[in-house]
């Protein structure tokens, strides 16, 4: 406790000294999310993190999340210093979509519009026509369908197949998945519904089809957060990273949030629905990157890639403005 208080105080001081602002994803540790909020920073989904960082006047953005989030911030704000508590925070979708292979796949289908999830490297974004996040993917695909476009979708196959089913779009899917969401089990959720018969089931579309089918609401992090506020249920079974419980509980203090089971098949199974890379954003790591700005964990993006990836990123930001 004392150590945590001291580290938090240190972060507050360093943010002020360095004219830095902390932007945290919903999946980071609640302590980090609370610090972002109380220091004038922001807690959000990947789309709104990027927009907030771009529009903020601080010299330095400290991005607590995974690497693609830091990269996106740098792409949108090249004049700012972008730091991350760790540069080792990967994402299995990003790792599962190497640019050379993805690019070769795209080259085989030159008649298709390339739509990539934000959870990708700057190089993959630079190869794309559109970047999307789960909060705007369906709308953007529908927009492309209106123009009779056929689509290449990467990298998340579950999100891709969810969009395909909902829109009827002609989509070729890259084969990658999120190691956190693919572990949720429909059977475990159904068992848990016996224990909480009035609970609503909230599911992120990076989950497998069978899990999406038992959902009351399917949506991105921000959409699930909103559903937890708007729906009258007092209990929610949530199939996404448990980091989001911090904001759900804050918005609805009288409601209960239960983790959807992962590997097990029974209602008593305790899930471990937490992204290991998000968990690397510790208070210690935050202090370290702020103590040595310019030396430690500075996000850099190759200039040519930056300029190219800005085009599909701007399309998304303009579309969702
Ligand atoms: P959002 O775009 O909803 O923030 O989700 C990012 C992510 O990593 C989901 O697992
Ligand atoms: Fe990537 Fe999944 Fe972690 Fe999100 S939860 S950052 S998609 S590995």
From TrEMBL:
Keywords: 4Fe-4S, Cytoplasm, Iron, Iron-sulfur, Metal-binding, Pyridine nucleotide biosynthesis, Transferase. One of its GO terms (cellular component) is cytosol. Its cofactor is [4Fe-4S] cluster. Its EC number is 2.5.1.72. Pathway: Cofactor biosynthesis; NAD(+) biosynthesis; quinolinate from iminoaspartate: step 1/1. The keyword Ligase does not apply. It is an enzyme of class 2 (transferase). One of its GO terms (molecular function) is metal ion binding. InterPro entries: NadA, NadA_sf. Coiled coil: none annotated. One of its GO terms (biological process) is 'de novo' NAD+ biosynthetic process from L-aspartate. This is Quinolinate synthase. It comes from Endozoicomonas numazuensis.
